[in-house]
Predict the 3D structure of the following.
Amino acid sequence: MKSPASASWKAPLKFRMPAAENLVPIRLDIEVDGQRYKDAFTWNPYDPDSEVVMFAKRTVKDLKLAPGFLPQIVQFIQLATFRSYAGQDMYVGDKIVPIKLDLRVDHTVIRDQFLWDLNNFDSDPEEFARTLCKDVGIEDPEVGPAIALAIREQLYEIAIQNVTSARENRINKKGRRAAEHFPISKPSGAALDLMKLFRSSVVRKRKEWDYYKPVLDLLSNEDVDALEAKEERSG
Amino acid sequence: MAEKSPVKEVAFSESIPISNSNQLKQSPQFSAKLTTPTPPISDIPSTPTSRLPPVDADVIHVPSYSRWFSWDKIDSCESRFLPEFFDGRSSKGPSLYKYYRNSIIKLFRENPSRKITFTEARRNLVGDVGSIRRVFDFLDHWGLINYSASSALSKPSKNTASNNKSSDSPSLESPSTAAPTPKQSSTSRRFCGECKSLCTIACFVCDKYDSTLCARCYVRGNFRVGLSNADFRRVEISDEAKADWSEKETLLLLEAIMHYGDDWKKVAQHVGGRTEKECVAHFVKLPFGEEYLGHPLSDDAESGFDPNKSMRLTPLADASNPIMAQSAFLSALAGVEIAEAAAQAAVNILSKIDDTTASRGGNGSLERNAKQESEISSNGDANQNALERAYADAKSQLDKEEQDIERAITEITEVQMKEIQDKILRFEEMDLLMEKERQQLESMKHLLFIDQLNLSFRKNSN
């Protein structure tokens, strides 16, 4: 018996990252006076503004950037935290989403795919990144944060989608004044249903094994240079 | 990656972190060298890639006030300064803190002659940069990272009493960060400008804008936008052990005690800048300098005695407990050993009586007396013991009274409830009776009606 609403409707919650800590991923790419500053990190949106300024100052000082970077960095961070949709409603069903990793950090290339439970607010991308690096034996310490960041970004995207869909649903309801239960927010193409996923068995099919394995590559210097040149040209 | 081997080297040297800090004992000799302007980088013998004889690993200088550091343990000052990891609210736990701390320190020790920047550290760590920054700043201030003996500024470092390096060893933090100073600037109370809390351990003063911050706000960076770490200087408000009571303060203290006796609140106010605890502790520790108070405590006839004895008795005699005062007087009369013996005998017998009857109530006073006797018996000992026991005594009395009150209240409420229940029962019975009566009335009415009918019939038929 397949119920049309195969996911139970839960009351919408306040928006937050579906992870243990409500941290916001931030990517910066600023250019001032010919100096380019690219960076990516996670930020705690509850930190006070003075913290933002402190961090920006430290970064400028440490990396010896031009002082013109300071207000830009501050603005970026503030914008990112403000836009974090805090306070709006988010609707989360029984969703398990696949998260894909495909990053290059310096000499290390990592590709991986795994499933993530959006309902579990105890899950910790940082913990996952640390364990992954340790298990796979990644020596470059910068890979960990990059992985955590990538996971958070994807989660963020999905969470945002849920927010917008919750808003849509509300509007729909007002318009039609009908629906008994909400149509499940149209899942992004990547999200899967629990039922569908686990219908046959919990064990993964053999042909899917290769997709869900982490793949680690170590590049040589020439490869790195080649890739970077390609990115510069395209980016 | 090519970096693997140096990591191994450093790991080995780190396996003797304790010996590293133990080498501080030798550093008084080093400190003599350190007054020369050349930094003792020569004392840090190696770069990570060279081969080292195992024992003579990298000498990592760690200031003496950070000797609590160890790789596996978390010290109390860490949990004080970085409460976010230890309060159990968020998912950040002590293990996470340890991971950050150890990684940052490892990173620094890979190349001890070079300062690491915060950005490098946070690039390598998984987590939110705010927390990493706080850990980094904490380690920086405590000299666990970036503590290279570069500057010849000989600001005295904060020392424990055992380490007499006060004027010799430079504190050796780079001039841009605040250097801890041992002496307190003043004994006045300090309130934080940001969070309005009392500064206890240490506070940070900004001279530029003349503001004071408590340690927590400082670490969190809760100051105005125009300021940065460099503008603050650390001021210790250490606890009483490190503070020296000036002559003036001691005089004030004694004066206050003379006037206010046992009212430590007023005494503390009078002295100004010391909490009650500190006043009491200091007073108790005063040597027989109490004698220069020469205090003739009035009523309970302490007159003919040496000032010593009278001072020692004063605290007890002042306790608003005439029995205590009497016992004090008597024991002073009789002499110490006799008083002791008598008190002991009394205590033994009293305790026997106590065992046989139920505790509390009337026995409370007996126990109290016993306690007082035993207190008198130790009159020969330091005042401190007596005070402590008196204090504990008072506490236990308070507790007992509270319990009594509670019990009384519960009994009262029980009785009231019983009353109400009885009333309810009675009302119910009355209700029943009323019902019965009403039914009887009804039946009587019926009978009447029937009689009337009969009568009218008879009348009509006649």
